[in-house]
Amino acid sequence: MDEGSPEEREHHVLVVILRIVLVALVVILGIVLAGKILVAKLDLHGDNDTNGYLGGPVPVSPIPQETPSAEPSPTDMPTYDSSLPSLSEPPAPTDIPPVNAVPPGLVLSISPTSVRSGQAFQVSGTYSGRDGVQLQLQRLENGIWADYPNDINVSMGTYSTTAASTMTGTNSFRVYDQTANRPSNVVSILVR
Questions:
Q1: How much is the average pLDDT of 24-31?
Q2: Which of 61, 59, 41, 38 is nearest to 50 (CA)?
Q3: What confidence tier does 53 reach under pLDDT thresholds 50, 70, 90?
């Protein structure tokens, strides 16, 4: 018996291995498919299972029919429920806030809280639910909130900028949302 060249033997071994792999894949695919079919059939039978009854329609007992009387009795007459609002009454108010309601939480923080005249300080904070809103930094001057030359944009619920002051002493700052007429908390810093 001629065994052939080494290339032919190698080719023959590869063909045998490929056939074994192909048969294994077909068997695995068949098992998976059979399992899915079995599960689907069990699900169909499980849906019809009512108190141990399998297959076919579920028996239903007939609804007893009452014979109508000539006149309805007082117990058969509908009664008026006085707790229900009438059509002429306005609906009761709800606690649902309006769509454009501003969520609470415009919070300001400043760091450091003591700086030299003209030294920059960090202004930052949170304002949840108000992305894209522009805030105005304000300083309290003679009892009036004056706009500071910093416009701040809220992004992902936070904001941040730097500012500086040459007015020595205690400086009180806040940020202000003009569109919602909402100020933040007040933070004071010492300018030396």
A1: 85
A2: 59
A3: very low
Q: How many CB atoms lie within 10 A of CB 89?
A: 8
Structure tokens at 21: 């792999």
- Under DSSP, the state recorded for 67 is P
Residues of the chain with pLDDT > 70: what percent? Answer: 65
Of 173, 177, 178, 170, the closest CA to residue 122 belongs to: 173
Min mean pLDDT across 76-80, 102-106, 187-191 is at 76-80
CB 188 within 8 A of CB 170: yes
In the numeric block, the tokens 């290339």 are attached to: 7
- pLDDT tens, residue by residue, 80-105: 555 655 555 555 544 444 444 444 68
Which amino acid is it at 16? V
Round to the nearest angstrom and report the end-to-end CA distance of the chain.
106
Task: Pick 137 or 94 by higher pLDDT.
Answer: 137
Distance CA 46, CA 29 (A): 25
* 163/90 Cα distance (integer angstroms): 53
Decide: 182 and 135 in contact? Cβ < 8 Å: no
8 Å CB contact between 147 and 183: no
Look at residues 145, 152, 102, 144 and name the one whose alpha carbon lies nearest to residue 125: 152
Output phi, psi for 111, to 5 deg: -145, 135
Which amino acid, one-letter code, is at 12? H
- Nearest Cα neighbor of 136 from 117, 161, 110, 158 is 161
